[in-house]
């Protein structure tokens, strides 16, 4: 059994859905562990969360750190994706980012996810990165997904993640890529 | 080819020696990358170093974060092992720790190492922990090794790492345990 170290219900369900092919029991963490996500990279924050949850729960855990990287804005909101304009809704955050982007021709962006597994008993930690490249849409569209999904158009599509819905997202998303890669690695090393 | 991300010559040679059975070319990093080792765990610091060296060198890297954990002193010097009493020699650091330990019956301690591999191209990061339990000697003995080796007696021995010499250390040390475990994992996942 592996705990999913997050208190974000959307994430927990998305992760369980992504990993449903793997024959592993996943449970939501029974408690919140305070971890200061002050790293400057997705790798640092993802590893910190996995480490402190694993040590506290004394059980293997998985978690991720994810975010949107907008190239014209110097990588913003990046590792600050969740904390950018804290207290505001994602609709307001997206409107503000669209406002800042309006004078740039370059609308390219990436969704990045670093998924991490930590087993405090074996002392093994593994991280895998998933990236989806795409562009920021001119407007906010679609009701599926969460966070910045409604204004991100993945490469090869003309709809936002908010319009494409869960089944497409499960196949091509950054989180899907990272967790599937991670679980393939875990199978190879015998941790699952 | 994998870079060893450290500027500590002792460590580079020890790591190359430990991994000489594996058929992998290891080279010392061609430059120093400034990484603030401000994490509160060996995992955090080891991952940070691997990540920033890997991104800067654009090549797979290995590194470690190691330290001495003295139980009676609340885990001191721990992640601060290298920075504890900065500017002083290890002989002076050991003398100070012996002074602080003199009123405790519990002389138990562990050497801990977290070895990390990061490949910026595949986005895969793997860490493995090695631990050697032992006791702090009443005095500083032996001329082999480096750092805190001359006052640490590993379990099952009556000599310090400073007296036991490189061949024993290569077999049983925390660094040896961590790097061998790491390279076994890397073989299994096909990164080496």
From TrEMBL, chains A, B:
Q: Describe the reaction catalysed, as an equation.
A: XTP + H2O = XMP + diphosphate + H(+); ITP + H2O = IMP + diphosphate + H(+); dITP + H2O = dIMP + diphosphate + H(+)
**Which Gene Ontology BP terms does the record give?**
nucleotide metabolic process; purine nucleoside triphosphate catabolic process
Q: EC number(s) in its UniProt entry?
A: 3.6.1.66
Sorted UniProt keywords:
Hydrolase, Magnesium, Metal-binding, Nucleotide metabolism, Nucleotide-binding
What GO terms fall under cellular component here? cytosol
**Cross-referenced Gene3D superfamilies, in alphabetical order?**
3.90.950.10
The entry's active site is 65
Identify the residues that bind Mg(2+): 36, 65
Official protein name in the record: dITP/XTP pyrophosphatase
Give the species: Thermosipho japonicus
